[in-house]
Amino acid sequence: MKAKARTILFWFILIQPFLDLYWFYHGTLANIFPFTLPTVIRILAIGALLGLYFSQKKSWQKLQQRKWLIFYLLLLIIYSALHLIHVRNFTSVNPTGYSYSTTSEIFYLIRMALPLAVLFLTNEITLGQKQLRQVIEGVSALFSGTIVLSNLFVVSLKSYETGTISANIFMWFNNANIGYSHMASKGFFNFTNMISAVLFMLLPLMLYYLFTQFSWQTGMLNVIQALAMIEIGTKVAAIGLIGGIIIGILLFAMHKYFIKDVKKGGPALLTAILIEFGALIILPFGPAVQRYHYEIYLAQQSDHDLTTEKRQLASGLKKYPHGKQRADFLRDFIKNNYQAYALNPKFVFKSYPYQYDPEFWLQIMHEPGQTRMQNRHIEQAMLKRVVQANHNHLDKFFGISYTRENNIFNLERDFAAQIYALGWLGMLLFVGPYLAILIYAGYQWLKYKAARTYLISSLMLSSIFVLLAAFSSGNVLDFLTASLILAFIEGNLLSQIHTQTHY
């Protein structure tokens, strides 16, 4: 049984890059089933793994001995039922109620539970270190290789906006006016932030294999991943690459010179340093830095002289101090002047339409230009306003539903996003285990000398990196490609700790 389960788990994680291809989520393939094809495949694969695992009597006996796990599963079931009851009724200024769907919400709860099942199974099944390496390097090669090759042949999808890029990495150095959106490459994958977070998560483990099993293949894989992280053009990938290599080198030095469980490392260390210097040379020409400069320019533009607009606004509000006339004036003013205030049209017209709550957008227009330019600030402000309109104190505990949140705008800050969607209880139950395992692993690492292996440290660092990416850029933990790989890594982290401490 275990051999079959290991094989299925091995291939299941390895094919995650294929399940994130853009065409599965857009066009004909996206509409074959009521839900996306990759999610159907994932549900079937995890169902098969659970079926194999629980086909043995001893698996049930082991489960019965773990009272805490049974209690946790009961909590998940009870919470899910209460969440669905709570979010059915909702008061909003938008007559659509943000298009809530019970079916979609149930499906979201299932999606959030799937990685937890993978985490459990990975710990129980216990892959060998050779298989772990093959999965990590394989996933990195599939993501990074696709991004690098598609960039080279100028066929990659843009990381920002739609369509394909206009220039490959060699063209960056000859034309400073290409524009970051025409340079940033995400290969043929769907979610830019999520791919950036996955590459950032894999970096400590790729460096681990570079330092412990150095060869030209491991060196080349690390170079390709570094190029992919530069080409994708996000802050998480760019800063993560530069900072991640430095932290990875420090982790290697700690294990070589203090813990002393690493013997080799000279050529690998030189390779890592050269990758770092190469990245520092290329990044100033890349899309991440170009985008940073463009955001500074936009922030300056958003603070341009608004004297005329402010005078018109003040005059109108004085003339129409309250009632329907004030609301009508504000609607016309916002419609005609949102661009002058550098407001994102997606937010004003689609996410939280100005027609239903012009007073909200009046508050936003009174904010400084740099604040108005921060998408995450506006996203969170819209969600706060929606919660206020509902005026239900249980929203803190059970959320307003992922469906509503997503139909407004998917908040680009994980943990906060799950609190809005699921409430504090749901966030702790569905996302909290990733943090809890990391804290537990840190405690075991400090308590037991046997747990202070280079692999365990690298698995912990990998988990820390992706959780930092989730918090800073969002759109990570709600997407199965990233959360399943995180679950696989943390499952292996638990397995390694239990093996080293003889649990």
List keywords for this structure.
503 residues, mainly alpha, 0% strand, globular
Question: Can you put this structure into words, describing what you see?
Answer:
There is one protein chain. The chain has 503 residues and is mostly helical. 70% of the residues lie in helices and 0% in strands. The chain is built from 23 helices and no strands. Helix 2 crosses helix 5, helix 9 (235-259) packs antiparallel against helix 22 (454-473) and helix 12 runs antiparallel to helix 13. The two termini are 22 Å apart. The model has no long low-confidence stretch (mean pLDDT 92).
- Any low-confidence stretches, pLDDT <50, length ≥5? none
Tell me the overall shape. globular
Helix tally?
23
Strand content: under 5%
Report helical residue fraction.
Answer: 55-70%
In N-to-C order, the SSE pattern is HHHHHHHHHHHHHHHHHHHHHHH
Structural class, from helix and strand content?
Answer: mainly alpha
How far the N terminus sits from the C terminus, by CA atoms, comes to 22 Å
Mean pLDDT: 92
Biggest sheet, open or closed, and with what strands and sense?
A: none
Strand tally is 0
Regarding quaternary structure, what we see is single chain
Q: What does the radius of gyration come to?
A: 25 Å
What would you say about this model in short?
The protein is mostly helical and 503 residues long. It has 23 helices and no strands. The model has no long low-confidence stretch (mean pLDDT 92).
Task: Produce the secondary structure layout.
Layout: H1 2-14, H2 37-53, H3 57-65, H4 67-88, H5 102-125, H6 129-152, H7 192-212, H8 216-231, H9 235-259, H10 266-282, H11 287-302, H12 307-319, H13 323-337, H14 345-351, H15 358-365, H16 369-372, H17 375-390, H18 395-398, H19 402-408, H20 416-430, H21 432-447, H22 454-473, H23 480-500
Helix pairs in contact: 1-2, 1-6, 2-5, 4-20, 5-23, 6-7, 6-8, 7-8, 7-9, 7-10, 7-22, 7-23, 8-10, 9-10, 9-22, 12-13, 13-15, 19-20, 21-22, 21-23, 22-23
